[in-house]
């Protein structure tokens, strides 16, 4: 899984190396319940991604690579200068209806396969989050609008995501835990963090993650960490990279090597 379009760089899906033998999920960044000034819209989501990532581009990359799936990530950290936050809707059921209908039309326009939940800031009382987001995922899945749903917690947002996962886990396919937000520099601490997070979420759904030119473990130590995690009895069923935008400058080194790791893992079994 790879976030794309998060930094405003003009990037094309076709620039990213894609292996045909495993599923490849692009996560479009972002669909936001806000107008262009960042004001909440009662659950009506609009797409805010770079102009190169069009519905036509989605159609084209999925035609070339039938193993590609494309998800819309909800919210993200900010829109322009405005930092975004979960807010408690005045009427939760109206929010759920608006969100499911606006996301359905986004999914249909772009030809998407699913959604990723990436709210990154929460008010002290955030009880509405698990119910509203969980209901939207369940509605969209039950109606066959989407086939994939993922969540992207990090250390300080883990509690609302545990609530969501506890109540609606049957509808959630992968946990894109942002390991790079923890201060992890070595394979050994990566393993420890991985073990910790698999105890909070479903063990087989937690994906290791890597931030290109970013925080956390860097360079080939990430692949040492993957081997160590695997050798300690964990099932690595995928990986998440943030982000394609940052990888343009290094020739997509981590995307290639991560896919090779996952493919070799498949052949070992
Ligand atoms: C959101 O709903 C509230 C309550 O119904 C309403 O007052 C407000 O105008 C709505 N906001 C938008 C942007 O539609
Ligand atoms: C794992 O969890 C333990 C127990 O809560 C904690 O002491 C430790 O710091 C955590 N390690 C990492 C790398 O997250
Ligand atoms: C590994 O995870 C995959 C995907 O969730 C699952 O299908 C498989 O059964 C798991 N294998 C083991 C050994 O847990
Ligand atoms: C902002 C927005 O789209 N609000 C809509 C949410 O849903 C209610 C009920 O369907 C509509 O009346 C609002 O216009
Ligand atoms: C997805 C997958 O095939 N994971 C496997 C990776 O390798 C380890 C150890 O060989 C297996 O236990 C996993 O099932």
Automatic annotation (TrEMBL):
One of the GO biological process terms: carbohydrate metabolic process
Pfam families: Glyco_hydro_18
Keyword Hydrolase: yes
Origin: domain of life: Eukaryota
Every GH18 domain range: 1-269
UniProt keyword list: Glycosidase, Hydrolase
Family (UniProt): Belongs to the glycosyl hydrolase 18 family.
Annotated protein name in UniProt: GH18 domain-containing protein
Native organism: Fraxinus pennsylvanica
């Amino acid at each position: 899984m790879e976030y794309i379009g998060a930094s405003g760089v003009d990037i094309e899906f076709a620039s990213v190396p894609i292996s045909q033998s495993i599923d490849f999920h692009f996560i479009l960044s972002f669909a936001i319940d806000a107008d262009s000034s960042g004001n909440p819209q009662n659950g009506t989501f609009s797409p805010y991604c770079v102009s190169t990532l069009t519905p036509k581009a989605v159609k084209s990359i999925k035609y070339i690579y039938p193993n590609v799936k494309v998800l819309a990530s909800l919210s993200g950290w900010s829109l322009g200068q405005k930092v975004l936050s979960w807010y408690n809707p005045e009427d939760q059921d109206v929010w759920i209806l608006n969100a499911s209908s606006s996301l359905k039309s986004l999914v249909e326009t772009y030809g998407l396969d699913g959604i990723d939940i990436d709210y990154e800031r929460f008010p002290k009382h955030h009880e509405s989050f698990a119910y509203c987001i969980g209901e939207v995922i369940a509605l969209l899945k039950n109606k066959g609008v989407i086939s994939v749903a993922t969540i992207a917690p990090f250390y300080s947002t883990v509690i609302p995501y545990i609530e969501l996962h506890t109540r609606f886990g049957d509808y959630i396919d992968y946990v894109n835990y942002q390991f790079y937000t923890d201060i992890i520099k070595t394979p050994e601490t990566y393993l420890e963090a991985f073990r910790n997070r698999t105890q909070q979420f479903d063990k087989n759904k937690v994906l290791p993650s890597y931030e290109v030119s970013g925080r956390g473990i860097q360079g080939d130590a990430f692949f040492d960490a993957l081997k160590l995690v695997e050798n300690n009895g964990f099932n690595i069923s995928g990986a998440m990279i943030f982000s394609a935008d940052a990888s343009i400058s290094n020739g997509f080194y981590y995307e290639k090597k991560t896919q090779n790791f996952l493919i070799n893992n498949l052949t070992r079994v």
